[in-house]
Amino acid sequence: MRFIIVTGLSGAGKSEATNSLEDMGYFCVDNLPPTLITKFADVCKQSDGKIDKVALVIDIRGGIFFDDLFDSLKELSKEQFKYEILFLDTSDEVLVKRFKEKRRSHPLSPGGRVITGIELEREKLKEVKEKADIIIDTSKYAIKDLREEMLKNFGDVEAPQKQLSITVLSFGFKYGIPVDSDLVFDVRFIPNPFYIPELKPYSGNDEPVKDYVLQQEETKVFLEKTIDMLQFLIPNYNKEGKRQLIVSIGCTGGRHRSVAIANSIYEKLHESNYNVYVEHRDIKEDVHKGDKKL
């Protein structure tokens, strides 16, 4: 199990760091009282491997409970439970600016100057920072920069391409374009099996329709160019911190051409070890409603 204690200065980016960890499959708990760390670790241990990545956000919001952090960490060490401490830091100037932009008071100086709260918090966190395994200074980071740093430190280094979840989604234009689409491809230029009586009852999941669609010269060129483009885009989306990609393939009714092509794209991406899924939104629509036009 990878067990991360996320802490650091208020306004340094702990929320965004936690979001990144959640996207990487970590079970995250925010503002857990330190006295419960050992009990929580035991619960995770008893999950039979179902919970293998955990991140606990613990900071000065815990008030008087925060002082129990080091006793709890000693208890973890005594139980031979491995953990890592991630500390998020930022310069005073940047922190003041962030608090002013968000019009928030500092938790340690709710009625006074922000800088006073920052100084008090730095002193309170001095010891935990010294014990940190990883320190990330977010002073000059945009959100995508922090996500990239988190991925580098806590992602699956053996399979970085799996950090992006890809869904290849077939649909019918007459039922509307999926609202969550990132990329939309219109395959209505391919000859339509609907107008071939012996193919009409089938869908793109069935061999007769699949063979008919994939043997078209237009389909072969389209797939070659589309896969080539996706192979280029996916690593760049990963680099920018994107975590979900919806690739929508549309024909008129969403039963024949789009289904066969979506399946083919899924297979090719799966062969490249991407974290890919396929879904057919409109395949169950009544086949007798049919495609009214090409």
TrEMBL record:
<feature type="binding site">
    <location>
        <begin position="8"/>
        <end position="15"/>
    </location>
    <ligand>
        <name>ATP</name>
    </ligand>
</feature>
<keyword id="KW-0067">ATP-binding</keyword>
<feature type="domain" description="RapZ-like N-terminal">
    <location>
        <begin position="1"/>
        <end position="154"/>
    </location>
</feature>
<keyword id="KW-0342">GTP-binding</keyword>
<dbReference type="InterPro" id="IPR053930">
    <property type="entry name" value="RapZ-like_N"/>
</dbReference>
<feature type="binding site">
    <location>
        <begin position="59"/>
        <end position="62"/>
    </location>
    <ligand>
        <name>GTP</name>
    </ligand>
</feature>
<dbReference type="Pfam" id="PF03668">
    <property type="entry name" value="RapZ-like_N"/>
</dbReference>
<dbReference type="Pfam" id="PF22740">
    <property type="entry name" value="PapZ_C"/>
</dbReference>
<dbReference type="InterPro" id="IPR053931">
    <property type="entry name" value="RapZ_C"/>
</dbReference>
<dbReference type="InterPro" id="IPR005337">
    <property type="entry name" value="RapZ-like"/>
</dbReference>
<feature type="domain" description="RapZ C-terminal">
    <location>
        <begin position="165"/>
        <end position="284"/>
    </location>
</feature>
<dbReference type="InterPro" id="IPR027417">
    <property type="entry name" value="P-loop_NTPase"/>
</dbReference>
<keyword id="KW-0547">Nucleotide-binding</keyword>
<protein>
    <submittedName>
        <fullName>RNase adapter RapZ</fullName>
    </submittedName>
</protein>
